[in-house]
Amino acid sequence: MFNIQNEFGRQSILHTQGRGFHVTMSVGLMADTGDSILGAASTTTTHLEFVPELWSDGIYRYFERGTVFKNLIEDYSSLVKGAGDTVNIPQIDLVTSSDKTIDSLVTYDATHSTQTQLVINKHKYNAMLFEDVLMIQSNADLVAKYTQMFGEALSRAVDADIWAELDGVNEGATLGTDDVMLAAEFQAALANLGENDVPYMDGDCSFVVNPTLAADIMDPSAGISKNFWRSDASGSGTVLVDGATKGFIGKLFGINVYMSNTVATAGTAISGAIFHKSAAVCAVQQDVRVQAEYSIDALGTKVVADMIYGAKLLDSASNKRGYKLTNAS
Asked: Three-state SS across 206-262?
């Protein structure tokens, strides 16, 4: 869409939509009085570093690289694109099969499905004002640094909201020592998952821990390390592909293990959790969007990156999908 209005001057509005992101740019133009305009005009070439398309591509790329949790749970984004702010998710419980005998009618289960609501109520943004002096002195390296910062800031916000849901899974245990996991404690976690029909060997389970617990798991002298397959020492490229997201450090009994700074350390914090991808859900209604406009008052360019999404825990007392580890002190 490109509109021009002329009243004591002209204003152009450019709106584009690309893959996974939206871009809007507003630029003020000088009025044409018929007189000659001295000096060279500022063009999209001379100020290429602030073209929104360039920024949005970089920010979106760093966002996808930066998030850990978003790729490990169910994604219902397709259900909320364009409209709607709530998704009603039915919980389908497993029923018991019955025996059929000759000359008997089948009996129907009058099942009642409970529903969980995923509300799209998170709107996060990053905004900065770049003054002309910075624009004049900027270069591609500076743009790369700011796009990385914007993207990682948004990814951390999304991860924090998803983890705030996941750390509420019903099952779990308290570690004997803060941020240290014994082999017996991990075996107890596996037993609990199996007893609750969580298929932890099907490749859809993940184990996300804080940096301290991650270091303990990788410690060659620790009891659990003999069962740990380090991604950087595996000698196989497929294990890296299997991780398929940031923070992947290896595998424990076929479960992908990730490290995230979003998970707190020490105190009585939850130091990690094993969860199936069906334990929680997220939905992104508006992907990373970048908007920019020039401010004549500030003599600089305003850049805003934002996104709209929601996250919800699906794990419940009757539908257990995970296991958390809590520090003792």
From this structure: EEEECHHHHHHHHCCCCHHHHHEEEHHHCCCCHHHHHHCCCCEEEEECCEEEEECCC
Phi and psi of 211, rounded to 5°? -60, -35
Count of residues for the chain?
A: 329
Predicted local distance difference test score (pLDDT) of residue 257: 94
Token digits for 294?
A: 């020039």
Give the N- to C-terminal CA distance of the chain in Å, as an integer.
Answer: 58
Residues 54-88 as b/e (b if ≥16 CB within 10 A, e otherwise) read bbbbbbbbbbbebbbbbbbbbebbeebeeeeeebe
Tokens 């800031």 identify what position?
A: 153
| Burial of residue 13 (number of CB atoms within 10 Å: 0-12, 13-18, 19+) | middle
Per domain, the residue ranges of the chain are 2-31+42-70+125-160+288-313, 162-281+316-326
Whose tokens are 């025996």? That residue is 99
pLDDT of residue 121: 95
The candidate with the shortest Cα–Cα distance to 169, out of 317, 7, 14, is 317
CATH architecture of the region 162-281+316-326? 2-Layer Sandwich (3.30)
Q: Rounded CA gap, 159 and 77, in Å?
A: 16
The pLDDT of residue 202 is: 87
> What pLDDT was estimated at residue 164?
96
Residue 176 confidence (pLDDT): 94
Q: Which helix (H) or strand (E) holds 145?
A: helix 140-166
- In 3-state terms, what secondary structure has residue 147? helix
Cβ atoms of residues 162 and 73 within 8 Å: yes
Query: Is the pTM above the cut of 0.85?
Result: no
Instruction: Specify the pLDDT at position 245.
Output: 66
Residue at 28: amino acid letter: G
Residues 6+ apart with CB under 8 A from 241: none
State the virtual CA torsion across 196, 198, 199, 205 in degrees, nearest 10: -150
Residues of the chain with pLDDT under 70: 1-58, 60-62, 64-65, 111-112, 134-144, 232-245
